User: Fold these one by one.
Assistant:
Number 1:
Amino acid sequence: MITENLGVAITSAGASRNQQPARDSTEDGSEPSRREHSDDAPIGSLDSSTSNFAASVFQRARHETESMAGNSWECHDCNKTFSKKSTLSHHRRIHQMDGLFECTVCTKKFTRRDHLNRHIRVHTGEKPFECAVCNKKFNQASNLLSHLRTHTWEKPFECTVCNKKFSSTQGLRNHLGNHTGEKLFACADCNRKFNHAGNLRSHLRTHTGQKPFECAVCNKKFNHAGNLRTHLRTHTGEKPFECTVCNKRFNETGSLRKHLRTHTGEKPFECTVCNKKFSETGSLQIHLRTHTGEKPFECTVCNKTFNQAVNLRSHLRTHTGEKPAECTVCNKKLSSLQSLGSHLNTHTGAKPFECSVCNKKFRSAPGLRRHLKTHTGERPYECSVCNKMFGQAGHLRNHLRTHTGERPLSLGKKPLSKLT
């Protein structure tokens, strides 16, 4: 065998070959080609430079041949296999306590000194690699290279299954889990599984409440480094992600992706109940609450609940009296943009909301909803005194005065606060 003639040992205490050594003949029985030197002549008989050159050539050829033939080297400690002996040798150091390089801060061990030096920057905060475009700094050259692709939009790593491209190998590895369904990393608290250890680490913070990433400007804390990076752009005003259609800029890729759907009309998120489609996952989640009846947002003043945070914010203004939206026609102030939109229809005469039963039209969605109850007979508002039911909150308020004896205020005086 060629490697035997070179005097190269191909076994070690920690390795074994999974396949039998190749015979000195090809599959068709013919003799393989050899270099023109005697099989009996050891490589030591050549001069030193020729010997070293020949050894490197044959070593490289052996590795390539083994890799192509599907041969592998197996680690006796963990049964992991490798296509090259050199890779196995490097891997074996993980199992050997002697000769490892240990971090003096956290005692983590590394097989190479340069890996230790790189790790130490986690403790020192040193970031020697700076982006020439935005001056952002990184503690590893590989992180800088990945970051530079956010400026160039270069995505050199392509999925062989669906041809989707990524700017980093890490992004590609995470994506591949979508095709294989393989999720090796499980949460010990809720058993949720992840296809990458980093995703599991981020998830664990939802259980611990840990927020290790702090904004140096306003001290706000985050549970993920990516969220901090996005937040920092609210201070710097940086918007590195630009729409190629209308040139509008965004401070995060997610916002750009959502915006692009306004150009393409794409609605990839479908409701499994009624098949309605949405351009954003958030819109789908809000819509699903119309099926489940879930109302997770509660008013701290009157305990009324809402299915959207924006509806709660608008409602809170009924308690505070705040009216931030102003009509440009008559300067009337309103508590929400939705109310402003309905009010503007009083100037234009538009009635865009039509009843599907009788085709009557209304200036606002709440007006249409109130009207629909006349068809359904629904009466959701109940008097707490006599249990009489009403289809509209205003009718209930008027009725309550029959119990209290209260008389409506005359025009021009401040109206009573709305019941909630």
Note: DSSP finds 14 helices and 25 strands in the chain.
Number 2:
Amino acid sequence: MISNEHFFTQVQTDVSQQLTALDRLAAKHQRATLLQLICLIVLLITAVLSNITRMLTASNQTSETLKQIAASPLDLILIGVMVVAFTVSWVWWAKDMKYQNLQQEFTSLYQEHTELIKTSAPLTEISAHFRHQMRLATHFNNLSNVIALAVIAGFVLYQLHH
């Protein structure tokens, strides 16, 4: 009887350690997708600001001096910010690639130890936290994809218009 309890406790400890490790990886996955999203938002904002400054300098109401001051340095700064944001976004995307099979690992572990996880409050809590982090990461990833497509569509439409 004591050996069965020891085995059960050992299995519970092992499952807890595996779930905790997966939860930490899910937190890193969420952070990577959030940072990628932030970079793409910065890219979108600077692209919009760049177009606004071009429209302001192109209008007839601004003086020639203002056109010279606003057009070159500000455009260069905004373009630099766009390039950096785009590059950093791709770096975070590349880092995020290693977390793509987290859900499969969790599903496998959960199916193997379903009863144990359901009956243990700490394991259920870790499991719920993992799922929450993965949902957030998926949400951030979807938003990043939408923003990236919007930026690409904006550049294509801008090029077709001019």
Note: The mean pLDDT is 84.
